[in-house]
# Entry
Amino acid sequence: MIGRIANGPASTCGGGLATGSTGGAADGGFAVALRRCLDEWSRRTGIAVETWALPAGEVPLRAARAVPAAIREALTLAGRETAAVSLVSVAVTGGAGGLRMTVSDNGAGLPVDESGPEVMAMRAAFAAAGGTISVRAVPGEGTTVTGVLPPRRPGRGRP
# Structure
């Protein structure tokens, strides 16, 4: 099944808001809906968001659920360092090797509580879709969240 994020403010990105839509051009698609959520979060927090890459077409429903949920939590982490973070960069790419999501900020790179609710929520969202999440903070350089969804086995659809 293919899906898209339901339109809405950044606070509603993810959390199972994917629908059974085709995610095609007629309804705006996954990338358009995700960009709207990122833009709203940026306006609300005053932190710039740049998108390096977003899928041009449809994404599988499992990705349409996991990616926005994880991005929402990564933005929550970045927003906690508002004095230190001025830029968040987002990339979501997919292909034969699966789907990769990266969210990086230019904050202080404070230690991340691996058992904190944001990290646990990101891990749960990607685990439910068969993927993994890693969180790396580099003191003075920022924090990067990377999520990977492996490709589906043959006959089971796209990543």
Notes: The beta strands are 2-5, 18-19, 48-53, 59-60, 87-95, 98-105, 132-138, 142-149. The longest helix spans residues 61-79.
